[in-house]
Amino acid sequence: MRTIALATDFGTADPYAGIMKGVILSICPDAAIVDMCHGIKFADIRAAAFFLEIAHKYFPPDTIFVTVVDPGVGGARRGIGARIDNATFIAPDNGCLSGIFTLYSQAEVRELINYSLMLESISNTFHGRDIFAPVAAHLAKGVDFVNVGPIITDPETFPIGRFEIKENQIHTQVIHIDHFGNVITNIRNDFQDIRLKNGFLSSSDGNKPLALSETFESIPPGGLGMIPGSSGYYEIAAYRGSAASVIGAEVGNSFIIELSGEDK
């Protein structure tokens, strides 16, 4: 029995995610389906890529990840599959797998063109049901990945922003804001040179004191803390509140962290 993990921007008010599950179970009744997330913001390809990057490592070996954030459905964009040692990814070729390709540059990538693995009638508006779900189900049932279609070497990707260090500053970018308003930066937790004893965050909303914190509870009341987050990236959090609201942050915003010049 293989796990199929679904990530979409379908929400839960419509039956779209449920229909995909029905298609999967009709083809592979033994599949274990996991709803990774159906609340991705509409057409937010970058969020889809980020979610896959941080979540895939916590699933059982040989999980098949189906991601449907697809504003170009019915257009010229391809459907693709990507395989690494312990997982397979099925998605539109629009950048949804950028995070995975950043981590696994040697992934085997194939275009989905084997129509025998898809529903007989393919709509112009619901490839999650007609292409991606059935292909994943056939793979879970035992079809070899090589049968989905030919290898391609030019999948669509977008650059993952990198932070820069300039003198006593870190220039960083917001890559995600979670449900709690925590602002996830592009600074990985393994970066060691964070000195914030007297540091502050400089953004379009002004300068605000910023402390290095190990937990949410250790953030000074009314203040901001920079925490090594569970995603593997540092995040800016507010004491029992929304950091995004405090600093006026949106995904893609850039800001500057002024270092204290003192050891942490």
Compose a concise summary of this entry.
By secondary structure, the protein is α+β, with helices and mostly antiparallel strands.
Describe this structure in words.
This protein is of the alpha+beta class and 264 residues long. It folds into two domains: 146 residues, Rossmann fold; 95 residues, Bacterial fluorinating enzyme like (Elongation Factor Tu (Ef-tu), domain 3, Beta Barrel), CATH 2.40.30.90. Helices cover 19% and strands 30% of the residues. The chain contains five helices and 14 strands. The strands form two sheets. Strands 8-9-13-12-11-10-14 form a seven-stranded mixed barrel. Strands 2-1-3-5-4-6 form a six-stranded mixed beta sheet, with helices on both faces. α1 links the parallel β1 and β2. α1 packs parallel to α4. The longest helix is centred in the middle third of the chain and has 15 residues. The N and C termini lie far apart (48 Å). The relative contact order is 0.13. The mean pLDDT is 90.
Number of strands: 14
Highest CATH level, the class of the largest domain: Alpha Beta
Q: How would you describe the shape?
A: elongated
Question: Distance N terminus to C terminus?
Answer: 48 Å
Number of helices: 5
The CATH topology of the largest domain corresponds to Rossmann fold
Q: CATH superfamily membership of the largest domain, which one?
A: S-adenosyl-l-methionine hydroxide adenosyltransferase, N-terminal
- C-alpha-based Rg, rounded: 21 Å
> What are the segments in which pLDDT stays under 50 over at least 5 consecutive residues?
none
> Roughly what percent helix?
10-25%
Going across the biggest sheet, name each strand in turn: 8-9-13-12-11-10-14
Structural class: alpha+beta
Average pLDDT for all residues:
90
CATH architecture of the largest domain: 3-Layer(aba) Sandwich
Strand content is: 25-35%
How many domains? The number is 2
What's the main sheet like? 7 strands, mixed, barrel
